[in-house]
Specification:
single chain; mainly alpha; two-stranded parallel ribbon; 22 helices; 6 strands; 63% helix; elongated; binds arginine
Amino acid sequence: VRGAKCEVRGARSEGEAGRTTMKARRKGHKPWGGRFAQATDPLVETYTASIQFDRRLYRYDIQGSVAHARMLAKCGLLAKAEADKIVTGLHEIVGEIERGEFRFDPSSEDIHMAIEGRLIEKVGEAGAKLHTGRSRNDQVVLDLRLYLREEIGLVRRLVAGLQRALIGQAESHLDLIMPGYTHLQRAQPVLLAHHLMAYVEMLERDRARLTDALVRVNVMPLGSGALSGVGLPIDRRFVARALQFRSLSANSLDAVSDRDFVIESLAAFALLMAHLSRLAEEIVLWASSEFGFIELPDAFATGSSMMPQKKNPDVAELTRAKTGRVFGALVALLTVVKGLPLSYNRDLQEDKEPLFDSVETVKAALSAMAPLVGGLAFHRDRMRKAAQDGFLNATDMADYLVLKGVPFRQAHEIVGRVVRRCLSKRCRIEELSLKELQTRFSGLFDQDVFAYIAVEACVDRRRATGGTATATVKKAIGTAKTRLRSG
Ligand code: ARG
């Protein structure tokens, strides 16, 4: 620390701009060091540094700097040769980072200063001009927007992958009837395909939410400066075009302090994880001996170190659990911005770790869930049998009476008594004789009631859009596939 102090003093005593630039690279000296007589306490350096995690933004930081440098040259704020030197230097730095040669020094504070520092080391004075008309406050938002724009694209593609896995299973089991549940009690028969397509719909809304969030992510903040805009003659549109942004931020104070786009993306990720967690929970349930509906693919299941017979649904369980991290990230970020005065505050640096962690979590969960779903084997007989037991056709039996003019409430009451009778006789509704139905319950029952309440008939009667009839589900699958094809 003492040595660093001397160096800082040394740097301050150099009058000339060029020599200060050289000194600026001496260990421990900060680009903002000019105003400070004392060196930063190492504790503060560690506490405030973000380079350990924001280093992952390096590509976007450099992409932004290249566009910024070209703009400065175009506006006459940099000589063309200087801009060329900067761009070449920046490209070399990408190589250094990717080959693992770049030294991420915590005293660099963040990735923006680390890259700028290295650039100055490499190309000298031209590099020291890069930060003209720019602040880290608008720079960091730019990086984050570029990062999120790319990651949202990747997440959307992974969601589509999981949708395809669900659709694939739905198409291969179009004839498989299972119990549909409410309150986790058997309720009415449905197609397994219909059940799987319910998740495809949830995921479709997730994709739509991400697309919508992208509109507000895709805004170019550079040119906002530290907070009030930039006084030099810059060209924001040039930068926006170079980086393929759809629009420019409209208010500099807002631009440097806005993290809505992060929060919106996290909200979309959180809901997506909630959906994955529901799917995961059903996989866990269905894989149990109690349900016995599915067999997990060996490659996506795990064993027990103690119990030799076990085959566990750990992938689904972890997905269910990882949901909490993403919910947590959303709450963390909402809490960070709540009560923040305008404009930039260092609090905003806390946006990165929760965001990065959420992006990685969501991508990992989707990547694991798609092949898990694709590899599920369904125990057709168990599912089919479960659909036969439990009086799943009771509603349709009531509807049968309704079609004969019985008010629904009365029909409900009659069939309720039929069910009670079956419970005491330990039989299915269709196992009662027509005679018994007619004499004990209603003279309106006829021979055709048995065909009417067959589970296949119950399923195939539900043809209105959104229902479980085979033809309707086939159509839903077709629609979903078209939607996926169009992006
Ligand atoms: N590392 C900072 C962040 O992530 C960059 C912006 C810092 N700006 C500042 N004036 N200290 O938010």
